[in-house]
Amino acid sequence: MSILNNGSLIELAVTIADNKFILGDRLVEIGISGPNLEATLSSIAMAQAELGHARLMYKWAHELQGLNGSKVEIKEQTGKAFPSVAGTSHWVALIAGVYAVNVAVDLVMNAVIDAKHPELHAPFSKMFNEQEEHLLYSKSWCKQLLNDSGAVPKTFALEFEKVTLEALQWLKQVETDHLLLSEKIILENSNLVKEYKETIAKLTALEDVQHV
């Protein structure tokens, strides 16, 4: 099977697109009532970038099916967004989702690039810089929420655990997918799950928790 119409690769692209579409939507909807003006303005800026990433990935998914990607109209996700992301309803869960999802997506994008498939022309280069900014910003907020007062740290920990478990399930599926491996879109021993767990552990380790 060629890159064209590789069902697993199309699903990978759409999963990234759906999660980023929902995150972009929630960053506008929930971010507008962020805890301070800086958070609100940053949320709106990130929303535009996440929605832009979603459009790129939906376009790529269409092209992988031999369709015209420039005519893609996105009004809602296709159903592949992580359940906890789709159900995001407050700021703490939103920040947990932005960080957890983007760490997972970043690992997958890098794994695809590292495989150096000659026919694969993924649009990742247009996303990396903005995604790195989102990771840094959301990570700093995660640390702040973990070190906040009252019920906030516990609420964050619960929301973060939910979304990271869903991300891990997806990464496990990607790194063991027969079509992705057989076509060398993802290399054997990509260790996505291992790397994700290590990254998340660094965030939640007590010595890494500090005020922004």
TrEMBL record:
Pfam family for this entry, one: PaaA_PaaC
GO terms (BP aspect): phenylacetate catabolic process
Gene3D superfamilies: 1.20.1260.10
Membrane-spanning segments: none
Coiled coil: none
InterPro entries tied to this protein: Aromatic_CoA_ox/epox (IPR052703), Ferritin-like (IPR012347), Ferritin-like_SF (IPR009078), PaaA_PaaC (IPR007814)
Gene Ontology CC terms, in alphabetical order: cytosol
Protein name per UniProt: Phenylacetic acid catabolism protein
Annotated organism of origin: Neobacillus bataviensis LMG 21833
